[in-house]
Amino acid sequence: MIEVKDVTKKFGRKQVLKGVTFTAEKGEITCLIGINGVGKTTILNAIMALTPINSGQILIDGSAINKKSYEKITFIPDAITMLPQMTIGQSMQFMQDFYESWNQERATELLGFFKLKPEEKISSLSKGNTAKVNLLLGLALDVDYLLMDEPFSGIDIFSREQIANVFTSHLVEDRGVIITTHEINDIEHLIDQVVLLDDGVVVKAFNSEEVRENEGKSVVDVMREVYQQ
Ligand SMILES: Nc1ncnc2c1ncn2[C@@H]1O[C@H](COP(=O)(O)OP(=O)(O)OP(=O)(O)O)[C@@H](O)[C@H]1O
Which UniProt keywords apply (predicted)? Predict the structure, then answer.
């Protein structure tokens, strides 16, 4: 389990996180939702200890992030980090050389799943295919937790559908996933836990299935109640 406890973060004089608390379980997809600039990426960076926090605590399976936890968690940023002149195949090779947790079998399966060609250059990929390669490089690692920053942002409907399908496949398996988004519409059915952020805090956290069953409300219904009051 990932536990984010009362985390605060300031950039200069700007207080971005004012005491953020939520948990994300293994085997579930947790979605951080909030408008641009609310601090979603900052939270993912804080979980990875890529940015220092001012106060609060973040635990991964009960421990503060350390060398060992980097073997069980990966961060898939919203832009690809591979060099543009590399091919998809070379990017995969780079990851294999660099990470012990690289799972070549899963990587090959993901290549087929996303219908990507290893000889294609990163620089010549469409936005949708770039997002898929980015996801492939993260999902092919044998880690327990995957953090994904806006995996659906700015890409066409068909790529979005294909990416959505990977979440319900065995390729994600029983891992814990945290994704960020500011638009929920076509991924609502994938999400287990929803964390709504506003003005530096969690304004509501809920299980989407429970709210649907008990209150007959969709995630968008709840978002309307929270954000438009
Ligand atoms: N390194 C930094 N230095 C100064 N300010 C920063 C830095 N990183 C983020 N911020 C500010 O912190 C706030 C939150 O940024 P963050 O990227 O976490 O938001 P977000 O919710 O992920 O937004 P988006 O949906 O646009 O990606 C923004 O106002 C941003 O300008």
Answer: ATP-binding, Nucleotide-binding, Transport
Q: Is the CB of 74 under 6 A from ligand 1?
A: no
DSSP the chain: -EEEEEEEEEETTEEEEEEEEEEE-TT-EEEEE--TTSSHHHHHHHHTTSS--SEEEEEETTEE--TTGGGTEEEE-SS--S-TTSBHHHHHHHHHHH-TTB-HHHHHHHHHHTT--TTSBGGG--HHHHHHHHHHHHHTB--SEEEESSTTTT--HHHHHHHHHHHTSTTTTT-EEEEEES--GGGGGG-SEEEEEETTEEEEEEEHHHHHHHH---HHHHHHHHH--
Q: What is the mean pLDDT of residues 174-184?
A: 89
CATH of domain 2-211: 3.40.50.300
Query: By alpha-carbon position, which residue is closest to atom 4 of ligand 1?
Result: 11
pLDDT at 21 over 90: yes
- Indicate which residue's Cα is closest to atom 16 of ligand 1: 39
The percentage of the chain sitting over the pLDDT mark of 90, rounded to a whole number, equals: 73
Asked if the model's pLDDT at residue 4 lies above 90, the reply is yes
Query: Is the Cβ atom of 36 under 6 angstroms away from ligand 1?
Result: yes
Mean pLDDT of 95-110: 94
Q: Is the ipTM of this complex over 0.90?
A: yes
Indicate which residue's Cα is closest to atom 6 of ligand 1. 11
